[in-house]
Structures are given as C-alpha cells and as structure tokens.
Amino acid sequence: MNDTAKNQRHQQRMARKKALIDASIARADQEKGLLLVLTGNGKGKSSSAFGMVGRSLGHGMKVGVCQFLKSRTDTGEEAFFGKQSDCEWHVLGDGFTWETQNREQDIATSQRGWAVAQRMLTDPAYQLVVLDELTYLLNYGYLDADQVLDELAERPPMQHVVVTGRAASEALRELADTVAEIADVKHAYRDGVMAQRGIDL
Ligand code: ATP
Ligand code: MG
C-alpha cells in the first residue's frame, strides 16, 4: 500500500471513530451526584480522592473530608487542603486497630466520626464529600453497614461522594456509580523504604 492509500485509510478509520465517540458523548447527557468507590490493595486510593478535592476546589466547590481510622494530622494533604476556605477537613480516627487494641473505643470513635459525615451527607452545600478509609469501619462492624449505605443513597442528589479503603463490600460496590480497584503490583515499603513525604503522607 502506498502512502496516499495509507493516509486515506487512516482518515476513514478516524472518521468512523469520531462518529462513535460523538455518539457516546451525545448519549452521556446526565448530571448527578456520583458515588465513587476506590478500593483494592494497591497504592493510590486516598491520593486519588485528594486529587478530586483539588479539582473541586479549583471549580469553587465546597468540599468536606472525613479521614476515618487514621489519627495523624501531619500529612501534606491536611496541611494544604485544610487551609483552603472551601475545604473542611476532619481527622476522625484514634489510630489503627492494632494500635488502639480496644474494640469498644474503636466503635465509639467511629460513631463520633460518622456523626460528622452525617452532617455533610444531609447538607447540599457540600458538593464533594470524601470518606477516606470508610470501608474498614463497615468491614469491622464498627458502623451499621446497612444504615450507612442507606444514608449514602439518600444524600442530596447533586452531591458527589468518594469512599476509599481496601476490601469494599459487594453491597457498597453495587450502590456506587464508579468503582476502581487498584492492584498492588509492587510497593517500595516491601524493599524497606519508609513512608516518604509528598508521596505517602
Ligand atoms: P495513598 O494514600 O498513598 O493513595 P492508599 O490510600 O491507596 O494510599 P492505604 O491503604 O490507605 O493506601 O495506605 C496508606 C499508606 O500506606 C500510604 O503511605 C501508602 O503509600 C501505603 N501503602 C498503600 N498501599 C500499600 C501497599 N500495597 N504496601 C505497602 N504500603 C502501602
Ligand atoms: Mg488510603
């Protein structure tokens, strides 16, 4: 095939592709608040959620972030987003379960934290709500999973919610509009590299 024929064939193929893409863009005409679930064992769940926080703030949207489980307040994300006037940031954990070693205390902390999330999930002023590491509270039974899913389903219709954490349940995946499972291919931690500022915290 000579170059002219190759160019012509490429042009025809791209024209067919454009027609398909234009048709699918025309079909995607809905606007609604989305529930996203970012799960899996690989690195990148919380940092992806914080990427959406940055995007939303860039659009002048009001954002609420609830960080469950974790207790550290020296992360780069909190230092940066916590001082943005449109972003409300709450660290709602007591530390990891293997640190607290106290189930009663973990349940009480989770329920106190969930009350903060409930306030956001019933207020349409919050256009994006991030529920970081929520899956653990559901999987350990610290919160009533059915009740939490009902509250997520009943949130304001235009509000986006991002839930992160490993091992998202089938029911949570089903309720979500977008689910991504991040695979763990390798992680520097297993080579003995400690958590690095800017990358891990
Ligand atoms: P990130 O906050 O970096 O997006 P994540 O939310 O996907 O990570 P978490 O399970 O919440 O993952 O773990 C948070 C911390 O643990 C981060 O410091 C992250 O680099 C590290 N981490 C994430 N995945 C792994 C892994 N597979 N092995 C070891 N450490 C990990
Ligand atoms: Mg995380």
Automatic annotation (TrEMBL):
Residues 1-25 form the Cob(I)alamin adenosyltransferase N-terminal domain. GO terms for biological process: cobalamin biosynthetic process; porphyrin-containing compound biosynthetic process. It catalyses: 2 cob(II)yrinate a,c diamide + reduced [electron-transfer flavoprotein] + 2 ATP = 2 adenosylcob(III)yrinate a,c-diamide + 2 triphosphate + oxidized [electron-transfer flavoprotein] + 3 H(+); 2 cob(II)alamin + reduced [electron-transfer flavoprotein] + 2 ATP = 2 adenosylcob(III)alamin + 2 triphosphate + oxidized [electron-transfer flavoprotein] + 3 H(+). Pathway: Cofactor biosynthesis; adenosylcobalamin biosynthesis; adenosylcobalamin from cob(II)yrinate a,c-diamide: step 2/7. It is an enzyme of class 2 (transferase). It is found in: Cytoplasm. The keyword Transferase applies. One of its GO terms (cellular component) is cytoplasm. The keyword Oxidoreductase does not apply. InterPro entries: CblAdoTrfase_CobA, Co_AT_N_dom, P-loop_NTPase. GO terms for molecular function: ATP binding; corrinoid adenosyltransferase activity. Pfam families: Co_AT_N (PF12557), CobA_CobO_BtuR (PF02572). It comes from the Bacteria. Its EC number is 2.5.1.17. Keywords: ATP-binding, Cobalamin biosynthesis, Cytoplasm, Nucleotide-binding, Porphyrin biosynthesis, Transferase. Required for both de novo synthesis of the corrin ring for the assimilation of exogenous corrinoids. Participates in the adenosylation of a variety of incomplete and complete corrinoids. PANTHER family: CORRINOID ADENOSYLTRANSFERASE. NCBIfam families: cobA, PRK05986.1. Belongs to the Cob(I)alamin adenosyltransferase family. This is Corrinoid adenosyltransferase.
